[in-house]
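Review form for a predicted model. The reviewer records the input and the model, then writes brief findings.
Reviewer: anonymous (R2)
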Amino acid sequence: MNDRARRTVGILGGMGPEATVDLMRRVIAGTPARDDADHVRMLVDSNPHVPSRIEALIEGTGESPVPCLVEMARGLERQGADFLVIPCNTAHHYHAEVAAAVRVPVLDLIEMTARDAVRGCPELTRVGLLASSALQQIRLYEPWFERLGARVFYPAPGLQQQLMALIRAVKAGRHTAAQVAACDRAAEDLEARGAQCLVVACTELSVVVERLRTDLPVCDAADVLARAVIREALG
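Model under review:
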């Protein structure tokens, strides 16, 4: 493929750092490459100082991350990014503001993931989300799944708290096998309540999802995003 046909992705990263690197690994692994030159050019702003989405959305005590996200997006655009991605589900609460601030497209992870889950399970009516508690509070996925004919369910409160502890541990780079097992318990709870599919809707959980033990189909938002990056970059 000639350089003119290739497109450069800009990644608004750092939310958290390991999830950003995980996305890059997935893009590299999924790219049909025979040499260095066949891979996707990625411009990455891995900024761990984006104001906390948890503090802003759940606790109501933090500053809005919008100005910081907009600054990152514009910086990546100036550096030559042809399109942008945000490897953080919760940060998509601010997708519209970021998209309005730049001239290049900003892929919508939430829409893409919902559509991918339904494509994988055409009869899907009940979907279980493994995600940050912020998503439940702001109902980020619900509008998309409702349009596609499915209801969204979250783990029981105690299990959701365990997922949040795991998410914080992954952000800190100190998660344990015992904490990762919370994903299995949450998956069992959602299956028992009728979920037909699980959506891994937190890129921190995506880092450890390969260890998830469940008989249900799993749609991982990080995989959806990596495939979209490759598709957009290489056509």
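Findings: The first strand starts at residue 9 and ends at 13.
Further findings: The two ends are 10 Å apart (CA to CA).
Recommendation: see findings above.
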